[in-house]
Amino acid sequence: MTNRIALITALTVGALLAGAPAEAKGCLKGAVVGGVAGHMAGHGKMGAAAGCAVGHHNANKKAKQG
After folding, report:
1. How far apart are CA 46 and CA 37, in angstroms?
2. Would you give the DSSP letter of residue 41?
3. Fewest C-beta atoms under 10 Å: which of 32, 33, 45, 61?
4. Which residue has the higher pLDDT, 10 or 62?
5. What Å distances lie between residue 55 and 1, 16, 29, 36, 40, CA to CA?
């Protein structure tokens, strides 16, 4: 089960990183923050995936404003 979650997380992060550099930057920063926060709660991989998604969203939002 853990390997399956790790694989899904890796594929999700990889798919998000395949976008434009600004999107990848937001994803990487969010993944680091989410991974640390998730690690503290015992869910580091899920936190990293969620952080990547939020960072990706925020980078897109910022790009549209500027």
Report:
1. 10
2. T
3. 61
4. 62
5. 26, 10, 7, 14, 19
